[in-house]
Design a protein that fits this description.
The protein has helices spanning 45-56, 77-86, 103-112, 126-133, 138-152, 170-179, 204-220, 232-254, 262-268, 310-316, 318-323, 331-335, 346-353; strands at residues 14-18, 63-67, 90-93, 116-120, 156-162, 184-189, 224-228, 283-286, 292-293. The chain is of the alpha/beta class.
Length: 381
């Protein structure tokens, strides 16, 4: 199901449930600041199934991502996948790349009906990846798990974090994504929360160039490309497509071609059209203890499950309703003509300013005619 086919006022495109914060790794960017041991107040197996029952009320094939920490640290992971699949949910899993992710575990997940397994690769080589993940051997374990997924016939997604430390690794990671036969490359632009607050992000200008490069990658590779916490990738892609269409149109005009075609259709699908998903708008997150957040990177609770229904919290909680209203945005995000297809990272705005409706400091774009304050406190040029 494509995001544009989902009415995000009624249901999220993605519902993430953080099964646990337990994990063998100590990754430098970890939002959850994961620890080796499980928390005593995690949702129980019975509570987790009640949550999945609630999620089914969103509608057919609701996408549910079982995350962590390391969801494989819970012995009932496969049971949740099987239960969710049986009641009509589309269940996916994001396990950590450790030696515990064995062929038997992957086979059990496949037999339970898992739709996709997402593995993180943050460097093109073992030295860089293992240093970032805080565990020697993680790179090899991740590649081995990817091979198990391929052998089990489970589609693979590769997740990669973009920070000042990892950005130069992206071309090498791209080659790995292709070699592994992944279906999707999900590129996450760092939000300074948890242990990630100690990392340096890329500059807005570097982020822009990375997104332009990712747009080219998407057109050249067989795998899909998406960004996480960087919705302005949609603006960059739209601008790149229009530039290509305008160039094609100019060449056609110079040889007698007419004005019809891709250039005009791209223009008609422009910034008035709502698109994509951001925290609270097409996206919801349930913590290991049942708190409902707009995103794991925007840890403001809007309710608690399973005592409250995830459906009611998503649809009716004030925070979620405001995040779905782009007129609530302030600063240059509020003035931007692309706000309905982008909207900026609400999580990054919250992490850097305490206000989820402020401008996203990672975006370098300045709306035409905007003369208000910039996220860094300077005035617009």
């Amino acid at each position: 199901m494509r995001p544009t086919a989902v009415d995000t006022d009624r249901r999220p495109f993605v519902l993430i449930w953080e099964l646990t914060q337990a994990c063998e790794l100590a990754c430098d960017h970890c939002r959850a600041e994961a620890q080796p041991e499980r928390h005593p107040d995690e949702l129980t197996t019975a509570e987790g199934k009640r949550l999945l029952d609630q999620a089914r009320s969103f509608g057919e094939n609701q996408l549910v991502v079982l995350s962590g920490g390391d969801p494989a640290a819970r012995p009932d992971l496969v049971e949740f996948v099987e239960y969710g699949t049986d009641i009509g949910l589309s269940m996916t899993v994001t396990p950590s790349g450790t030696a515990s992710l064995t062929r038997d575990v992957v086979d059990d997940l496949a037999d339970a009906g898992v739709r996709r397994i997402a593995l993180s690769i943050d460097g093109g080589f073992a030295l860089e990846h293992d240093a970032f993940r805080g565990e020697e051997g993680s790179f090899a374990a991740t590649l081995e798990a990817a091979a198990h997924a391929r052998d089990a016939g489970v589609p693979l997604q590769v997740n990669t974090t973009v920070s000042a430390r990892t950005v130069d690794q992206l071309p090498a990671v791209r080659e790995l994504v292709a070699d592994l036969g992944a279906a999707l490359w999900s590129v996450f632009f760092l939000v300074p929360v948890g242990r990630g607050a100690m990392l340096d992000p890329v500059s807005p200008e570097r982020a822009e160039s990375v997104m332009e490069w990712l747009h080219d990658v998407a057109s050249e590779e067989r795998f899909g490309v998406k960004t996480t916490e960087a919705p302005h990738y949609r603006r960059v892609a739209m601008q790149q497509n229009r530039a290509t269409a305008d160039d094609s149109g100019n060449r056609a005009a110079s040889t007698g071609g007419g004005p019809e075609g891709r250039g005009n259709s791209e223009q008609r699908s422009g910034p008035d059209r709502r698109g994509g998903i951001v925290a609270g708008d097409g996206f919801a997150f349930v913590s290991h203890t049942g708190e409902v957040y707009p995103s794991g990177f925007l840890p403001e609770s809007a309710g608690t499950v399973p005592e409250e229904s995830i459906v009611d919290v998503y649809r009716d909680a004030d925070l979620f309703e405001r995040l779905r209203d782009r007129s609530e945005l302030t600063g240059k995000c509020g003035a931007c003509e692309f706000k309905h297809v982008c909207g900026g990272s609400r999580s990054r705005a919250f992490a850097t300013t305490g206000d989820p409706f402020a401008a996203d400091p990672l975006c370098s774009y300045v709306p035409e005619g905007y003369d208000g304050p910039m996220p860094d406190g300077t005035a617009a040029d």
